[in-house]
Predict the 3D structure of the following.
Amino acid sequence: MIALGTLVLNGSAECKSLASDLGLADVAEALRVSGGTERTREAAGDLKLAMSR
Amino acid sequence: MESASRRYRTPGASGPSIFLPNADAVTCCADGAVRVWSAETARTDPDAAKSLDDLMSQRTAERAQKSLADAQSKLKTEPPSALLTPGDRDGATKVIKEEGGVVAAYAWSAASATWERLGEVTGVSGDGSGKKTYGGKEYDYVFDVDFKDGAPPLKLPFDNGDNPYDAAETFLETSGLPMEYREQVVNFIVQNVGAENVTQVSLFYSRVGNLTDVVFCVQGANVDPFTGSGAYVPGGAAPGGASGGAPGGGSYDPFTGGGAYVPSAAPTPGTSSNAAPAFKFLPMKTPLAFEAAKFDGILKKLSEFGAEDGAMGEVAAACNGGDPPGAASVATLVTYLNTWPVDKLFPLLDVCRMVALRGEAAGVSAELAAAAAAACARSVAETPRLPANLLTAGRLFCNAFKHAGLRDAFLLHASQILVSDDEASRFRSFPLLRIWFLSSVSPCDRSLVRVSTIAGRDFFVRPDRITQCRRSHRRTPRELSVAGGTCDRAHTPLPLANAVRRSDTFHFNLLTAVLDSTRRMDWPRRHPRMPRPPPGWRSPPRSSTCPRACTRPPSRASAPRRLSPRAQSCYCLAPPATTTAGLGR
């Protein structure tokens, strides 16, 4: 998730579009709420934030 | 002990109050009037009461007008000539300052291609003039109060002229919060609403016996009527002046939630919500690698498949921090990689994955690199395509970027590992990985080119990320076969391998992550939406893919030297300048 967030942050517009089409925001939100570990939830929050930018 | 309190609404700031022996109170106000307050209706002067009511109504109207004027002055208005320009989208709005100073809102109607007048701007949401609804009632303000992380914000309604203490108490009661927060809530209200918009709490007193203890509260030095101590001092607010200062000097916006009240000294969690959200981990700048391995399980499986325990144990020990393996052991590993059937390759690939992390210390050589890359490609491309093969091959591909020689060797087989003509079986394993690999190796932004039709979906890659198939590719004819695309004729494509080399840290990181993600998810099935072709792009027929499927070197006659926008040619990735002969560094 961390590296996917990096991809979303630093990637091209088509990378972001692809990530959006794949539904990464929903996955990140689900993991942010009910991720297994705190680190998982925090990473999911990062990914969610990256997707929203 | 008898205690009581009286609150009087005055049209302006009031000075100290005086109590008369008959329990009446006298106040002096900033409007120049001295008023005598009495609990006995017999002494009430109807004219004075009506005059006071009129004055209060007038002040309320003045405040509303001033607030609207302030809000309108902050609006970005445009002259009427701006309506001559069509809107950029349906529903686009403009605020126009019409003749006579009237500020009106217009919306663009795409259907009629005209600007439609919505009406005069009589209030601006967020400036205090707009009413907000909460609990079925309209309020001048509805603040969001964050009391706990992750919990929805609590709503704190407030009307201009309300008593902040009453509002705070009601809020704390309805929210189930302790009354210790009252002063902070009052502070918050006064600071965000402005001292002039709250009730002039001109007098509180507690009667002990025969009025021996009287506490006066005046604007600017109010006293908590419940505790007798200083409740709040509006920060630097002159009488009648607006406060609005945020704690810490920042500007508070009570409407957007940016200035949500957070108790500073609260024992319960209370973090400020106006802090900009920040990333905790991103961006990740350290490459990820698959570094964990269970050597016992790997060696057991290798032994089960008939490998020499001694040789494999020596290689595994070297991977685990031991001495470098002997040449014979490395040669044995190379032999296995070259000769073992596909269904037995995955433990070997796992060993190679760990070898890649230690490099020469674990016996990496040009021969081993070439054998590992070929085995990796074989395990993915040939049947049976075991999930274990796909997983270990992907991990090995990622770890190979840790070593320059291995990286070059694997890039020679990139198309076999990531892209091939028979995509159906691999598509579910490496979709994101392949898409990333194809689309992220160059920062240039040009029109997309369809790479191939895979499982009924189109994939695109930018033309500057594809290199033309050249004669020198004969040795490696299967490199990233791309068919049916168009390319900018004037563009000189960059070798993919060179592009990867320049920023392999970033790419490696992504490769690893994407691979790790796709390992667990069936992305194409769950998320069937894929990138659309660019506007104007025409999909070539399915049969336009490379007729040879790049399974053999293109003939000298058929190999195109330049890409043609209309040509349906076979384009291949240029091999890296260095070959496996450069290994062993």
In short: The radius of gyration of chain B is 38 Å. Chain B has 16 helices and 14 strands. The longest helix of chain B spans residues 46-74. Residues 3 and 539 of chain B are 86 Å apart (CA to CA).
